[in-house]
Every structure is written in structure tokens, then in C-alpha cells.
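Note to self: keep these together.
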Amino acid sequence: MKQMRSATLALLAAASLAAAALAQGVPSDATLRGFQPTSEYILVVNGNPVPAAEIYKNDQLPGILILTSALPSPVLMTPRSGNVETVNLMKVAKQKDGTVDLLADAVLSPVGPFQLEGANPTFTYQGKKVSLTPRPALRGLRKGSELLASIPEYVRNSQGYMPNAAAVAALKADRKPVTVHVVFGSWCPHCRQHVPLMLRVENEVKNPNIKFEYYGIDNPPDGWKDPEVKRLGVKGIPTAIVYINGVQAGRIEGEAWNNPEVALSKVINGATGKGK
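Structure:
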């Protein structure tokens, strides 16, 4: 406990120093900036998961930044070069929007290359074996609030979406009992892009007559063997099955996910799909 408390105090002190450096006029690096929190990976050190580790991605670099007291310094992995480097924690600056930048005067120190063990990038740092493993899929029936609490990408993409006002107004006014059953995979990049739009719609509509639920499936190939996937005949994700009075009225699939509130309003009003 004492060791954990010391590590936490060290992190807080370093964060304060980084803020002080910014206040003194040290800007963020022009390239090594805008790292976004990600839920794709779990950090494993010497075979032990480190659930409290903070992992950030910059898809433009591309790069992965790891912040954890389980390692002596923050670690930057750059897939294009296949290299691992460290940076002084005092040169890591957290921004108000949740992103992380490296300061312009940050110096990167080489650790060496990383290797792939299966799909897991792995490297050795000061005698410790470090790897990133895919985070286990969210499985089974979930509420939208659970998705937002578990997947930071969903939060970002939800906040960045502006639903069609007319469609939202129509959904708010609807009085039919509706259930929107969304089949998704937390590991799925298409779901990461589109399911947050439905989460935003749910938050905007807030109609007690329209119930939103989310059913997570496992990574392939196991996910396609899920009994719910087979029962519903789902061929791709995300797929939303819309029920009115317990009867399937239609589905939201493919390009309809670009504006799920519009697609949902059309299904509810009988413009698309037929009950089964």
C-alpha cells in the first residue's frame, strides 16, 4: 500500500510539473500530440495485467503511449518503425479534453524494437516483459451507460455527432412501445464508429416508450456462433433490430448507420422493413 501511495504521489507531482512547464511557455510538440484514450488494449507486465494503466493512441502517427506506475517511465510505441521509446513523465501533458501531448522539449530515449507474439506487441524494458493484449469483449445484454463507461472511443464519437433534429423530434413524440436491440462488438471498428451515434440518439430522445438495449458479442470466430446472433440471423455488425409491440418492424444495417435516428424514425413509422 505504501509503495502504491508513493507511485501515485509521484504521478501527481510529475503531472503538476508538466502543467507548470506549459505555464512557463513550453508548447506541445507539433507531432507527438493529440493522443486519445483507448480501450482496445490491456497492459501486461511480467504476465500480470495492469488494469490501471492508461493507454492512448494517435492514429495519425500512428503511435501508442503507455502511462503506468508499473514501468519506470512512460512508453511510446510507433508501429511503423517497430520501435519502443521512453519519455520523462514531466514532459507528458494531459489536456482538458482528455487527450495527452508530449511537450516540445521532450527527449525520446530508445528501448529497442517490439515483436509480435500472435497479435500482441511485446518488448522488454529494464528486465520486464511488457505486452499489449486485446481487451476482452463486452458480452451479453448491456445498457448504453455501460458502453460509455467502458469504451472511451464511444464517448468521443457520441459527443461529436449531431443527430437530425426533425427525426429526433419525431422519436420524442412517438407513443408506440418500441425496443431497439443493437447487436455489436466492442472490438469492432465499424461499431466503434457507428454505435456511439445511436447512444447519442438515445440520450437526445429520452422517450420512455423507446427502449434501447445493446447486445455485445465475442471476437470472431466465436462471436458468430453466439446463439443470439444465430437466432436473429445477424450477418454483420452493428445491426439494430427494431421491435414495435414486440414484433420486429425492421432493421438498421449498413449505410443506414450514418444517420441512425433517421433510419429508426422511418422504421417506426413503417417506411422501411416488415415485421417477422
